[in-house]
Amino acid sequence: MKILSLIFLLALSGLAMSDSCRWSGSVSLLDQQYEFAFIGKIEKRLSDYSLSLDKFSVNVISSYKGDVSENVIVWSGDSSDCGADFVLGKTYVIFAKKIRNKLIAHYPSVWEFTEENKNVTDNFLKYYEKKNVTKDDQ
Q1: pLDDT tens per residue, the chain (138 residues)?
Q2: How many alpha carbons fall within 13 Å on the CB side of residue 75?
Q3: CB 43 within 8 A of CB 74
Q4: Distance of CA 76 to the CA centre of its chain
Q5: DSSP string covering 104-130, please?
Q6: Which among 62, 87, 88, 93 has most CB atoms closer than 10 A?
Q7: Cα(136)–Cα(138) distance, integer angstroms
Q8: Nearest Cα residue to 95 out of 42, 43, 32
Q9: CB under 8 Å, gap of 24 or more: what pairs does 46-50 form?
Q10: Claim: this prediction has a pTM higher than 0.85
């Protein structure tokens, strides 16, 4: 019975996480909420999983918002608090906030740069292309 209760509670927590971490579908909204937007490749995990934030070394391929260097450290929590499940060697679109001098990224402001996510990535690229053209014209 205890095992069944535990499975039920884990299933509920997964449902709660998926709702709160769900993608809003609006690049414009993410742009308003986050200071930094860039595409980067995860090079190295700099800390092990723990109860706190994990940190990752990211090679920035393209920067769209905010002043980010070629290599940055991005912090993210675990999946229970919408932390990004970064995979070494994979490329991601990342929106991040600076909190206490740390770049923090979590779902739904992170997605892998893959064919499966092509529509949202295309929306991201078109949004910043249009925004930069408008900014350059002013």
Answers
A1: 544 333 333 333 333 334 567 666 789 999 999 999 999 999 999 876 555 788 999 999 999 999 999 999 999 987 777 888 899 999 999 999 999 999 999 888 899 989 988 988 999 999 999 988 655 454
A2: 12
A3: no
A4: 8
A5: E-BTTSEEE-SGGGHHHHHHHHHHHHH
A6: 93
A7: 6
A8: 32
A9: 46/73, 49/78
A10: no
Assigned token pair, 104: 């923090």
Positive or negative, the CA dihedral 73, 78, 81, 82 is positive
CA distance 15 to 11: 6
